[in-house]
């Protein structure tokens, strides 16, 4: 089936673009410097394309966090950072300071990633774990994250009922509403 699909160009997905680029040896631009973000989620095809876009003696900078690897379901190498370091002869540099998160969030994250530290300029921030959600508890700039969809949909209905705009990211459920 895979071999038959290599000659079918009328329907392709993202992974096809990567795979077909390699299998058909499609021409790619080449660069002296290559910067790759979220490197912890690269798969073998993406590493090969990265290799092919590098000029001889090119330099590359791979940025990633081992503890943030989330794309194993689509073939990302669970040892991606180590694989990249070996394949591209990289010098690993620790980036342990979070400039993005408030101190309270970094402290919570340290249970999973002990080396992470907050920036000296970070706000303290707050973390709350409500058991009951009310639409009026939130402002338009708030973000609600949940590992399950059902609580988010319940909250969204409450907010819509009170004429408060809401957007649920990650799934196309708006059509069903």
Describe the structure.
The protein starts with a helix and ends in a 16-residue tail after the last helix. The model has no long low-confidence stretch (mean pLDDT 85). It is flat, with a radius of gyration of 21 Å. It has 177 residues and is an alpha/beta fold. Strands 1-2 form a two-stranded parallel sheet. Strands 3-4 form a two-stranded parallel ribbon. The chain contains six helices and four strands, in the order H-H-E-H-E-H-E-H-E-H. Helix 2 crosses helix 3. Helices cover 29% and strands 11% of the residues.
Topology of this structure?
Elements: H1 2-5, H2 14-23, E1 31-36, H3 44-53, E2 54-62, H4 80-87, E3 97-98, H5 103-109, E4 117-118, H6 149-161
Parallel strand pairs: 1-2, 3-4
């Amino acid at each position: 089936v895979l071999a038959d699909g290599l000659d079918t160009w009328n329907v392709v997905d993202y992974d096809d673009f990567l795979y077909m680029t390699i299998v058909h040896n499609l021409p790619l631009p080449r660069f002296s410097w290559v910067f790759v973000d979220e490197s912890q989620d690269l798969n073998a095809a993406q590493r090969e394309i990265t290799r092919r876009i590098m000029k001889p003696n090119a330099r590359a900078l791979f940025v990633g966090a081992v503890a943030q690897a989330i794309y194993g379901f689509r073939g990302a190498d669970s040892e991606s950072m180590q694989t990249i370091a070996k394949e591209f002869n990289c010098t690993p540099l620790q980036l342990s300071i979070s400039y993005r998160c408030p101190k309270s969030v970094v402290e919570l994250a340290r249970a999973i990633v002990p080396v992470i530290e907050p920036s000296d300029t970070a706000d303290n921030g707050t973390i709350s774990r409500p058991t009951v959600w009310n639409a009026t508890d939130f402002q338009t700039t708030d973000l609600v994250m949940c590992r399950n969809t059902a609580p988010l949909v319940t909250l969204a209905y409450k907010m819509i009922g009170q004429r408060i705009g809401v957007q649920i990211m990650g799934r196309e459920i708006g059509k069903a509403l």
